[in-house]
Amino acid sequence: MIPSGFWGGRVANLLSRQITGNEPPSSYVDFIARMRRFVESKGVTWAIPVAKDGSVSKAADWDLRMLTGSHSRFASRTNGFAIDSKVREEALQSGWATAHLPEGQALSHDVQEFIKAVIACRCRQQIVPRSVRHEASIWRTFFSLVNKAPWELNSDDFNRFMALKEWSEKVVVGISILANEINENLLSRNVPVGTAVRIKAAKRLQSNLDERRDSKKLPDKKSLHELVRIVFQENPVGHHDRIRFYALRLLLFLRGYG
Q1: pTM of the model
Q2: Which residues pair with 106 in a beta bridge?
Q3: Measured between alpha carbons, how far is 115 from 156 in angstroms, rounded to an integer?
Q4: CA gap 71, 212 in Å, rounded
Q5: pLDDT at 219 (0 to 100)
Q6: Sorting pLDDT into bands at 50, 70 and 90, what band is 163?
Q7: Closest by CA position to 74, among listed 133, 121, 140, 136
Q8: How far apart are CA 27 and CA 169, in angstroms?
Q9: Looking at the chain, which terminus has fewer C-beta neighbours within 10 angstroms, N or C?
Q10: SS (H, E, C) 123-135
């Protein structure tokens, strides 16, 4: 008899792999282990208790500022691992077979571990926490339409997702980022994956940049005000941060008198 709850899910995953021989490649296992070590080196607990519906309490969720050294006033978190029921319903209405879709309310344990590892990887690259939070929400949507282990993903999975509807530019970029991480870290048996979506994202970005002129190339006022607040009010962490803060203060002064 398989136990219920969190450990029951892990036991079921293990038994399923033993029966099907669906073991992840060593590069995948190593990536998860490296990202776990990174997270724990920042004083953050790797395990995130997830409710049956995929939700996570704020107290148990990661604060992505701790993984990036961010000075943001507000915390950005993973926001749980719930299946996107709305997009799942859209897929069913479009004629998708239920076999292509995960069951239940929460993403599988393997997918949760994978998303956590990619979040950690992005944080280690010093990506702004709120951007990583948004990317993670896109990856949850993607896996709400994929019923397989992350290391079994292929380009067909990405193409099927992209063909469901006309996605926003942010979604296209987020999916492209996911494909890039999978390819660069050899996280699937079927790399390279997502070639079409990566090309689409690159074309959209170039088109967007070509359309911008003069001041439109600059960050919006809200982002600029937040930058000013950080470099003049927050305490830099370490010597390198201090140098960056002073350099940005000087640039802001010069810009103000320019």
Answers
A1: 0.75
A2: 82
A3: 20
A4: 29
A5: 62
A6: very high
A7: 133
A8: 30
A9: N
A10: HHCCCCHHHHHHH
